[in-house]
Amino acid sequence: MLVNLDDVLKKAKAEHYAVGLFNTHDTDMLEAAISAAEELKSPIIIGTAEVLLPYGDLPLIAPALVAAAKRASVPVVVHYDHGLTFEKTMEALKEGFSSVMYDASAKDYETNIAETAEVTKIAHAFGATIEGEIGHVGSAQAGDDKNGMYTTVEEAVDFQTKTGVDALAVAVGNAHGVYKSKPCIQLDRIAELNAAVKCPLVMHGGSGLSADDFKNAIARGVAKMNIHTDMVCAGMRAMYEQCDAHNREKIVTWDYLDTRKAKVEAIRAVVAEKLRLFGSVGRA
């Protein structure tokens, strides 16, 4: 069933588990994520991000995401991750996304507040929820998990109060992509933010974190975890293995279909593993 962030995150926050966002910018990833959630009776968040649109055009992938959510036997949020422009974020709402993230965190503080507050009004008018970000979550490749661009309690409270966002992404030592060294998640900071901010907290850059990182962050208040890189890596490994197993000089139809099946199953396994770690199994 198609739902929004309020429908799944308020319960997660109250009961101390997290709901996973899995960016699913093609139908192979979509099938993998939904099937894992249904098998484990877990709520789930699916979607795509603005930086991924060159690899899965929004008018092409959006109808598949929304249709899959509506027919699913578990609650499914269709979320537009890291909306960087007003125009594309509006397009996602018009395409039927039940939630959007408007990310102006790389801009100055007052601009971030003003732009996010405006998008919040529009998203709520659509009946959708919105996530904002304060304290920029950058790139692990660039070492942004180590550069001290962390969310402060004062800014988080001020930002959430002035924008009215339904979920807040925070920077606590996390970063997008593949970590170059072991991340150091600021657990005390998460606990302080959770105690002070009214809405559920979100942690981006979940791929590459340890099981203990997840469990400790969730125990201290993170209600939404974002995953993408781990899914991509699992899918690529499966395809490499299939290529090695088949005769590349004499390809037949079933070679492609077997490869696709292996890719879907590998991604599904990653999603299932994360749902178990997040504690959302059986919460649908």
Calculate the terminal CA-CA distance, rounded to whole Å.
10 Å
CATH overall fold name: TIM Barrel
Q: Overall pLDDT, averaged?
A: 90
Written as H for each helix and E for each strand, in order along the chain, the element string is EHEHEHEHEHEHEHEHEHH
Q: Using DSSP, what is the number of strands?
A: 9
The global form is globular
Q: Looking across the biggest beta sheet, what order are the strands in?
A: 2-3-4-5-6-7-8-9
Write the layout of secondary structure elements.
Layout: E1 2-3, H1 5-15, E2 19-23, H2 27-40, E3 44-49, H3 58-71, E4 76-83, H4 86-94, E5 99-102, H5 109-125, E6 129-134, H6 153-163, E7 167-170, H7 187-196, E8 201-203, H8 211-219, E9 222-227, H9 229-245, H10 253-278
Parallel strand pairs: 1-4, 2-3, 2-9, 3-4, 4-5, 5-6, 6-7, 7-8, 8-9
Helix pairs in contact: 2-3, 2-10, 9-10
What's this, in brief?
The protein has helices at 5-15, 27-40, 58-71, 86-94, 109-125, 153-163, 187-196, 211-219, 229-245, 253-278; strands at residues 2-3, 19-23, 44-49, 76-83, 99-102, 129-134, 167-170, 201-203, 222-227. With 284 residues, it is of the alpha/beta class. The protein has one domain (2-278): TIM Barrel (Alpha-Beta Barrel), CATH 3.20.20.70.
Task: Describe it.
By secondary structure, the protein is of the alpha/beta class. The chain has a single domain, classed as TIM Barrel (Alpha-Beta Barrel). The protein contains ten helices and nine strands. The chain has an eight-stranded parallel barrel with strand order 2-3-4-5-6-7-8-9, surrounded by ten helices. α2 runs parallel beside α3 and α9 packs antiparallel against α10. It starts with a strand and ends in a 6-residue tail after the last helix. About 6% of the residues have low confidence.
